[in-house]
Amino acid sequence: MPIQDWKPVIGLEIHCQLKTKTKMFTSCGYKAGEDPNTQTDAYTLGLPGTLPRPNQTAIEYGLRLGLALESELHEESRFARKHYFYPDLPKGYQITQSDHPYATGGTVRFPDPTDHGEALTVRLVRIHFEEDAGKNLHLVGDDVSLVDYNRAGAPLLEIVSEPDLRSAAEASAYMRELRTVIRYLDISDANMEEGTMRCDANVSIRRDDDAPYGTRCEIKNLNSFKFLEQAINAEIRRQVDLIEGGGEVIQSTMSYDPGRDQTKVMRTKEEAADYRYFPEPDMPPLEISEAWIDSVRATLPELPHARRERYGALGLSIYDAGVLTAEGALADFFDAVLAAKAPAKKACNWVTVELLGRLNGDQRGIEDSPVSPEHVAELIALIDGGTISGRSAKEVFDKVYAESTSPQAIVERDGYAQVSDAGALDAAIDEVLAAHPKQLAQYAGGKVALKGFFVGQVMKKTRGQANPQMVQELLAAKLPQVSES
Ligand code: ADP
Ligand code: MG
Questions:
Q1: Which atom of ligand 1 is nearest to the CA of 202?
Q2: 252 and 129 in one domain?
Q3: Which domain-ending residue is among 379, 395, 414?
Q4: What per-residue confidence (pLDDT) applies to 213?
Q5: CA–CA gap between residue 115 and residue 317 (Å, rounded)
Q6: Domain boundary among 366, 382, 414
Q7: Residue 82 CA: which ligand is closest?
Q8: Are residues 124 and 257 in the same domain?
């Protein structure tokens, strides 16, 4: 059976590091990028006698995400210890939530990446709190390994999806949407390159959509969207080859080697560590009151899918709505253009094509845009009101972008106003007709397509500033009446 006939099934476990000032269970500060081992305390280092105390802001951030994804939030949840030995884990265990997470269920809705059409829905199994481990640094060539405990104890949310994803592209689109939601909520930088968002992908294959799920393998630590997609596709290929060759998939933990574009087995289920989970004895169950949940709910921003629906209702395509809402700041900018009374489709075009094109070219974000939302709305009004032609509009926009000046001021200063004065246009048309007797004769002989030529000449003569609609009308009145030959 050819590979494309196999049906992949994918579920993601995503970790995101919360941007709180202090760690998950201690008041020790944490910020990425500081000198190694400058952000530790007795608790972080696992010294005897230290006790964990949950970070209230981290929990509030967790509630924000749970509410945004419509998860069920539990008034009581519990922490547990997950034991393993590794040099970056000084306590010898990680505090996590296993059997009693604070949030279960929920959904993530995102546009289908293949046709930018119908929204896809992925259900969540759970969201829970965890603390991060430190970092081992292996110095290649020096035969030395170092450990940095700064990150040990940093607050994490783990978001576990149901196996609802059906391709690598869907998995990556799902993860992008989650990243957008997390950034809208302002709870994490959710940056894969910087490690504040990380992903493990579970992959299995089956022969058709109704068949029971196959055995899954889990690819660990994918740290870019590109590697996420490549790793899933590589794992699908490996499983297909295995089954087609008469073998069977054994539940395993995999790593992905981007150089070879291959996944390989790190350990199988039999070799899996026994983490000896048990309830954290140093902390009571976590209690979250209804009143707290309600107060957090009241602070939620409009979420990306709601914004996409709102833009869709204004007549924008799902694709355009997706571009505009991918970043909260961009959607805010667009909303400000709408608030300045610009029509949605034109506003979308100027923002996504003209403005984003220039900003991307200069590697600038929308936050540093020299063009304000009011400038965009004003420019559109100048075009719609017939003051400037569509052609001059782009030049005017270039100047608005370069100088951060209002379009109206540029139009006045640099003389971009369209010539809509019938007398002036009449004169220009007369000159054009007088200068091209040959074409005029051909026109009279039936070559009516030459009208476009005359319009072009008039536009040229007026440096593109003639009102094209008026040129058409005035010209029609002056040209001989002929029927098409
Ligand atoms: P574990 O701790 O064993 O990794 P979790 O419940 O944390 O278990 O996560 C299991 C993940 O595997 C979930 O994201 C789930 O969607 C996914 N998954 C479960 N069964 C399959 C399957 N047959 N194929 C692909 N993914 C699966
Ligand atoms: Mg897992």
A1: 26
A2: yes
A3: 414
A4: 97
A5: 12
A6: 414
A7: 1
A8: yes
**Per-residue pLDDT for 113 more than 80?**
yes
Q: Which of 175, 216, 222 to mutate to test the pocket of ligand 1 (most atoms within 8 A of CB)?
A: 216
Q: Which two tokens stand for residue 119?
A: 């929204």
- Per-residue pLDDT of 185-225, as tens digits, reads 999 999 999 999 999 999 999 999 999 999 999 999 999 99
* Stated pTM of the model: 0.87
The answer to whether residues 429 and 463 belong to one domain is: yes
Quote the ligand 1 centre to 208 CA distance (angstroms): 19
Ligand 1 pocket: which of 6, 12, 13 to mutate (most atoms <8 Å of CB)?
13
More confident residue, 196 or 422: 196
Number of folded domains in the chain?
3
Through-space distance between the first and last CA atoms of the chain, rounded to whole angstroms: 61
pLDDT value of position 483: 67
Mark whether 91 and 159 lie in a shared domain: yes
Find the 383 Cα to ligand 1 centroid distance in Å: 55
Q: How many CB atoms lie within 10 A of CB 284?
A: 10
SS (H, E, C) 219-276: EEEECCHHHHHHHHHHHHHHHHHHHHCCCCCCCEEEEEECCCCEEEEEEEHHHCCCCC
Lowest mean pLDDT among 29-43, 114-128, 284-298, 345-359: 114-128
Domain that holds residue 166: 3-295
Question: Which ligand minimizes its atom distance to the CA of 98?
Answer: 1
